[in-house]
Amino acid sequence: MISPRKLQLVILSVALVSVALFLSACGGSKANVRKDETSTTPKVVEVTTAAAIKRDLPQFFEATGSLSGDQQTDVAPQTSGKVIEVGVDIGSAVRRGQTLVRLDDSELKLRVAQSVTQVDQAKAAVRQAEEKIGLRSGQAFDPNRVAEVSAAKVALDLADKNLRRAEKLIESGDVSRSFYDEQRARRDQLKEQYDAAIAQARQNYAGVDVARTNVANAESQLALARKNLSYAVIPSPIDGFVAERTADLGEYVSPTQKVATIVRTNPMRVRIDIPEQAIPEVQVGQSVSATTSAWPDKNFSGRIARIAPNVTANSRTMTVEAEIENGNGALKPGQFATVRILQPRAVSSVLVPSRAIVTEAGVSRVYVVKDGHVEQRLVQVGQTEGDLVQVKSGVAADEKVATSNLELLGDGVQVKS
Q: Is pTM beyond 0.85 here?
């Protein structure tokens, strides 16, 4: 059985709990009233706006590729030898003909000196052979100018005259038949001597020919020795930069190993693949522009230099090679480049500021301002022109789009500009 005092305490506790619940209910009602009152007040967002503009945009195909030098060559020596001088290093700018590496040429110089001596000896042999047959330098060969031949010719001519005289005298009976026979035998003997002299002269002239041939051979050996001597200096075959230098001072090199790699970087080359349907739109000489991640805000101009004659069967693309101007050397071989092939025709397009576009999860939208409210529109964006972006659909020219506080906007939100 509960005592009167405990009963009073229970009643008092119940009363306090009831009062607390009542006050809480009243407070909640007032809060809901304030919340409802707040939600009924329209929210106005201040925004800046810009009008969508209409402009003719140049059209292009875009593709990517790796840059390479216009020319690249591995330089190897044309003779073996010890490196005694290295004139360049990686990154050095070189001109065509500039010395890259010099080899020890002492042995090569000795070979040249020996060849010079051999040429002099061969020329002396020619002069000796020419003097033997009375031939002056540069004079055409005539066997009758040889002394022995000339003397034999004189004797033969005299014998011919005596024989003809004897023929006339024997007819008249002034000389005997034996005298005539003697003159005839004398003439035949001298004729044989004359023929023998000519044969000997021609044989001697053949010796001159051999001596002259020896001179030509000696001069060829001298030219070869001098050429080998020139190989001791290894020059750059092109203008460009040293991409690699593999020869070191004191190293022994041979024609089977390179001493340096030279690359010409202006213009640069880049190969790209264009889709089959774009083939009619591409031709040699057409303008292109290129960008790289190293210079994202800079365009490098160029032109299409070469077009492959065939379409790749697997990818249905055609390879195009472009040349990109690189006068200041900003572009480097091996860089990845994005190339745009400009088209001759332009297309009328609508553009809005890039800051007016919100892109989330690959979906782009803009907020068009009309009658103090915004309309959310999904758009398809295209190419970028400076701080403007092409909008292919969703916005018409001259419509105003919000460009600030976009994170506070939604479809139908009231705005003030």
A: no
